[in-house]
Design brief:
By secondary structure, this protein is an alpha+beta fold. It is built from 3 helices and 4 strands; from the N terminus they run E-H-H-E-E-E-H. Strands 1-4-3-2 form a 4-stranded antiparallel β-sheet.
Length: 99
């Protein structure tokens, strides 16, 4: 999910429309979209770990805060925890990430 904090949604939604993989890749769609966002100039500036609870106990995930410094946009994005996402957040040295 993409929540834009600025009013420039026309620009921001371009990132939201990054391609979904057409063929099975073995990599989660969240990971691919996050990599596409990083390639587009977005930076992950904060990560918050959360545990979903309730009847379904869906599992763990992250609330990521992303910034595009040239467009002066920020957004928050929920992603499910996976080994791909963990490795990417560790590689990027994201503040708030703890494995």
């Amino acid at each position: 999910m993409l929540n834009i904090s600025n009013d420039q949604t026309a620009i921001a939604t371009q990132w939201d429309r990054n391609q979904q993989p057409v063929h099975e890749t073995g990599v989660t769609a969240d990971s691919l979209r996050l990599l596409a966002a990083l390639d587009d100039g977005w930076q992950i500036v904060q990560s918050t770990n959360y545990l979903a609870h309730g009847k379904n106990a869906e599992g763990r995930g992250y609330l990521l805060t992303l910034l595009h410094p040239h467009r002066l946009l920020t957004c928050e994005w929920n992603v499910a925890r996976s080994p791909d996402i963990d490795a990417l957040l560790a590689f990027e040295g994201v503040p708030g990430f703890s494995h």
